[in-house]
Amino acid sequence: MSTAYYPETDGQSERTIQTLDDMLHACVIDFGKGWAKQLPLAEFSYNNSYHASIKTAPYEALYGQKCRSPKIQAAQDRQKSYVDLKRKPMEFKVGDRVMVKVSPWKGVVRF
């Protein structure tokens, strides 16, 4: 007999608990007594890792976009500013011929 309020009877909850247990165990091994300071990093890692059951990361499923940490955002902004220094604006007129890159692999390759 199983009830809805006991995670021991729910396979998905059991798997989530096992994954979190493995992550925390790795933190204890790697950081010793300072493992508690690494909990936000473990949470970030779990929330941004791909989950096959929902076919996306939990953060992306909840907010509809990929998570961008402040450090990643700063690095992307810095790289964009370097590229923008050399970028020239492109102007087209009606009737101009342009080259369009078409990839036969788009939508076919899956990793």
Automatic annotation (TrEMBL):
The keyword Nuclease does not apply. InterPro entries: Integrase_cat-core, RNaseH-like_sf, RNaseH_sf. Signal peptide: none annotated. It comes from the Eukaryota. One of its GO terms (molecular function) is RNA-directed DNA polymerase activity. The keyword Cytoplasm does not apply. GO terms for biological process: DNA integration. Keywords: Nucleotidyltransferase, RNA-directed DNA polymerase, Transferase. Residues 1-66 form the Integrase catalytic domain. This is Putative reverse transcriptase domain-containing protein. It comes from Tanacetum cinerariifolium (Dalmatian daisy). The lineage of its organism: Eukaryota, Viridiplantae, Streptophyta, Embryophyta, Tracheophyta.
